[in-house]
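[Meeting: bench + compute handoff]

Bench side (C.D.) handed over the final construct sequence. Compute side (W.E.) agreed to return the predicted structure before the next meeting so the bench team could plan truncations. Sequence as handed over:
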Amino acid sequence: MYKLIAIDIDDTLINDDKEVTPATQTALEQAVAAGVVVTLATGRAYASAQAIARQTGLNVPIITYQGALVKNLLDEEVLYERYVPQDAVRKLFQYCVEHDLHLQTYIDDKLYAREENQKLIDYSTLNGTQYYIEPDWEEKLVPQKTPKMLIIDDPAFLDELSPILRSLLGDSVHITKSKPHFLEIMHHEGTKGLALEFLAAHFGCDPSETIAVGDSWNDHEMLEAAGLGVAMANAIPALKEIADFVTLSNNEDGVKYAIDKFILGAVQEA
């Protein structure tokens, strides 16, 4: 029944040790052998996501930057790309400077910030991403195209900031949280849901024939777009509420369980 499965990476595909377990790796291979397209859908940059995708043996287009970039692994052809509108980039930069907020951006798949601080160092360590410092951000980076901008701060503060930025930047952007302390800004068509719909059409299948698996609120669009939306046991409560099914946690091979149940038919009902 299902022809495509899109899987989030952090706290979904990988466990808390940042590993794809052998059991989950086997399930991915079995799904591919069964003729199902297995892809990743992540907020990570392409460079970071492709490293994990290649480790798992995947060789298909993957969804990165929350859906702002869909790119082939084999020949790195860009299939779908949306940049943050330049007016929104300028407004966001100015707002963050005026309010002394830590802002990061991606240019040509490289991570940039105006200053080096612990937030940047921790983010880089978490994602295994090299960063670059550009003090003259407004002159050198603002005019360039970026698929994603990121503010790192206290979760409660970001919850208050989000509606302020929506009012400031308007409907041209998509704002979401990938983790409690990460507020991410993309083009309004840069969502995992729209990217999943694009990939389904690319592979000639209906959205009803797709599965999406995730753990955080930035996954909700693709769970809603998919024929079957699966939330991890460690997912936030709001995602579980809209999911069609809640699988095991990322430390219990929850992705494998979902593949076994809905693709391979290997899970027996109690």
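W.E. noted at the follow-up: The chain is about 40% helix and 20% strand. C.D. will use this when planning the next construct.
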